[in-house]
Amino acid sequence: MPDQLIFGMEVVLNGLMAGVLYALVALGFVLIYKASGIFNYAQGVMALFAAMTLVGMMEGRVPFSHLINAIFGTEIHHFGWHLPGLAAVLLTMLIMVALAWIVNQLIFRHLVNQEPIILFMATIGLAYFLEGFGDMMWGSDIKKLDVGLPQGINLMIDETTFNIFGYGFFIDNLDLVATGVAALLVVALVIFAQYSKQGRAMRAVADDHQAALSVGISLNFIWVMVWSLAGFVALVAGIMWGTKSGVQFSLSLIALKALPVLMLGGFTSIPGAIVGGLIIGVGEKLFEFTVGPLVGGATENWFAYVLALLFLVFRPQGLFGEKIIERV
Amino acid sequence: MEKETQMLDATPRDETLLEVNNIEVIYNHVILVLKGVSLNVPKGGITALLGGNGAGKTTTLKAISNLLRSERGEVTKGSITYRGERVQDLMPSDLVKKGVVQVMEGRHCFEHLTVEENLLTGAYTRGSSRGEIDADLNMVYDYFPRLKERRKSQAGYTSGGEQQMCAIGRALMSRPETILLDEPSMGLAPQLVEQIFSIVKSLNEEQGYTFLLAEQNTNVALRFAHYGYILESGRVVMDGDARSLRENPDVKEFYLGMSDEGRKSFRDVRSYRRRKRWLA
């Protein structure tokens, strides 16, 4: 087999792995969009906040320590304990649920029946607030996150591919875990949205707030539930990205990569987020591999957006998005 | 006046379920929409709320079902009681649990959900078993056979009449006692209007549901209802049982488009001699 082809295969595989991570972020967007028609600009920051909180919990950092030290002239930074990964994940999840509740109480409860653009602006405000709040709470340094997920080259794949092609593929264990987790999440979320009572109510709320109210669905409950779910997805995405490249501000920017993923997959489709993520992941790696050398590289930065633009022109609802039903 | 209302009503079986007492509604803190509306809804009856555009019919229904708040409206005076219990501070979901459900003007089906899923969301507030819900689903399909044929289609792709049936069916799924039906005739062909009203009538007679319906089509509404209230710019200007309203010369002229002297030219139209009605 020619070297180019084998190398190409590895590129595709790596693209798939990167795509899974994009999809994880995109999933959070889809959930909130589906249930409230809100494009949640703060989703990326939520992932960052979740990851920061997780690190803070595990290392026993004192929240707001800089603030406290500045005001009282103390020198406290750590409680002096270390929490095991699982306990910290559970605690962080509780905090994300609390965050969902607070966000709903303070912001979205008061914006029922408002234009989508107003809700969108509210999430931009939320994003900046949460970003600053996270920094104030846990400090803005780059943090290392290790909840005990396997990392490094997967030797089995390396060995098998070496035996077949005479060339070992480099696949990170963490990416494999991320793939498994993402698949599980999607299956669970699809079943929840399609077949459970609360999932049906969630879709009903997305279609028509007023009608949902009129049949006795509590918007507050559904919204807190959905924001909690999105918080959970953000936590998972935060763990994966944080483990991979450290918990730092740039984590919140991956949210921008989720945008083309959403345009491809459709804003309202949970499987669409995954397929969109995979297409973008593979597409951008393959494009860089094939066309990159011809145009001088750095195609990864724009490829996804150009693809998204094309989709906006020819298929605005995305691959799996709900058709916009318009009765005349 | 209240006493007279009671006496006028032909059917003595009534126990008053819903009592609206002199309510005033203000939107956005400045726009006064209802200026003292009072009405009684007896159990097991069909009560009609009539009037032209902007008379306050929908606002009255939304004030009762507590959907006003999400539109920045507020009941500032008066009281609304259901079975003698004050209900105006409840959440809409609590009111549904008490047995009062609204079918909104313009259907408002969940477009991307199938017809059957729409109906199932109606049962959201109930903790019933799957079996009971299935039984109710069949009951709805018995009254609206058309919905059974379309059960797997997305509601957004069904016709206006089917959507109206879907909205009524969805309300039935909450096992209500009282249904607030807002403008069921809107945008439908006369034949369909007739069909929907006769289903409402049979639901009322066979299943004992109480209806309060807001309607512009005075003619149809007064044929099917037992009692009617006529609203005009936020006030009740007239009320009476359906037959007496149908025969009232003012109603005939201004709402039914008939008069004793046959059709008239616009030049001869009298100015409205409104029967004033003041409540404390």
From TrEMBL, chain B:
GO molecular function, one term: ATP hydrolysis activity
Keyword set includes Nucleotide-binding: yes
Source species, domain of life: Bacteria
CDD domains tied to this protein: ABC_TM1139_LivF_branched (cd03224)
Keyword Nucleotide-binding: yes
Keywords attached to this entry: Amino-acid transport, ATP-binding, Nucleotide-binding, Transport
Any single GO BP term: L-amino acid transport
SUPFAM superfamilies: P-loop containing nucleoside triphosphate hydrolases (SSF52540)
Classification via Pfam families: ABC_tran (PF00005)
SMART domains, alphabetized: AAA
Residues in ABC transporter domain copies: 18-258
Family listed: Belongs to the ABC transporter superfamily.
Name of the protein this chain belongs to: Amino acid/amide ABC transporter ATP-binding protein 2, HAAT family
Source species of the chain: Roseovarius mucosus DSM 17069
Taxonomic path: Bacteria, Pseudomonadati, Pseudomonadota, Alphaproteobacteria, Rhodobacterales
